[in-house]
Write the structure tokens for this entry.
Amino acid sequence: MTKFEERLATVESLLVSTDTRITELASTQQAMNQELQETKTALTEIRDQEMSEIRQHLISLQAKMKDQEKQLQDFITREARQELLTDTVYFAEGQAYLTTEAQTVLDKLGANLIGQNFSQLEIVGYADQEGASVSPLVLSQKRAEAVADYLSDRFHLDRQKFSIKSFEDAYPLTASLTEEGKAQSRRVEIKAFTLPQPQERVEVKQ
């Protein structure tokens, strides 16, 4: 083999080696690009997830703040309010309909409320341990709703001022288990409240 042929063979070998190296480098670069793209995608997903969690946390905080503001406002209102009228109506065992006696009491109460500037009408239903087919919670709620419906329908009172609650058999009026004692617990208590009017400032002339 001549020197020229040897050099040519060497050059060809170098070319093959270079092509192989270029192919390896291209493959490595492609793998690195793929890894880089996967890393970017993963980072984007993490960022989006973190942003979503932050948004959810902010929404939760805003809801809690609103709830606390409402609780504070309700507390201030309860502390400042003054009792205007109060009365109680009673129900038959296991029933939520208004008796004639209850309607008479509500008629008098409703007539008095028409001329009063009340801020809230609290209607709280109760039950006794009646052993009825309806649970005390449902029964006490139905009794409170019956009173609210009667007052709003008959006297057109502002229902938005109503506060309707039910305490089932949690607060009996008496510990007596006699029929008379249990009958006193089958009740709805109605209380009307008003907020004190701000006092006018009186300027003292010098």
Summary: The domain at 82-194 is CATH 3.30.1330.60 (60s Ribosomal Protein L30; Chain: A;). The radius of gyration is 40 Å. Residues 95 and 116 are 31 Å apart (CA to CA). The beta strands are 82-90, 120-125, 162-166, 187-194.
